[in-house]
Amino acid sequence: MTEEEMRQHVDPWYEKYMALQIEVPGKDLCDMSGAKGRTPDQFTVFNVMLPRKYNPAQQGNLFERRSKAIAEQLHGPGMGIDYDQMLAKRAASSDAVFAWHQDAAYWPPLRSDLSTATCWLAVTDSNRENGCMRFIPGSQKEPKLRPHAPVGATREESHALFTPIDEVAEGAVYVEITRGDITVHDERVIHGSGPNMSSSWRKGYVLAYRRLECIEEERSYGFSHSHNDTFNWDKFHAHTRDAVASQA
Questions:
Q1: Which end of the chain has fewer CB atoms at under 10 Å, N or C?
Q2: How far apart are CA 107 and CA 84, in angstroms?
């Protein structure tokens, strides 16, 4: 996306969300740092789930059209938007960390083809100082997902998950990109992002594509990626929490 395209197709609605000018119900506006008791003006990882749902005017924008074309180049026709997400890290925030995880660990077990293309758009420059994306190369090829557990005591307390990682031993790669550029990853690669120690916000936006039949199966279980879903996450993750504890 060029600077002009970003100003036309992304900035207007993104900044409205940042200014709390678009209503977001319940837990779909939250602090993904895992901190408790903060108000939105104190969030260090300002998170909005499903912004295109709550602001239909942004649907069909240029980034959506281009990212769908990328998803279908990778996986063929029949890819649709599964969910979208805003993630903005407050300046000078040591806890503005998105923990190491695999996206598939956030999702219930499904029978459908899980092929995913998650397009992460840099709304501001994204670098090591402000908490750019980082990946564990080759982790997407592992036969099983790593054990994950909630960052907080339960998924009710903190929706975020983590899996223990030794960055040095596993060769973590930091991917610095400039405003308007994207990274693309699948559902199994281990990734996350570090704190924002810069003097300004680090802003990103996610569009995740999956096969239409997979999306349909998710919705049939009442799973929409909203943090307001009533899916029993703590029951689902009870066994993985014990596995993570055994690795610590």
A1: C
A2: 14
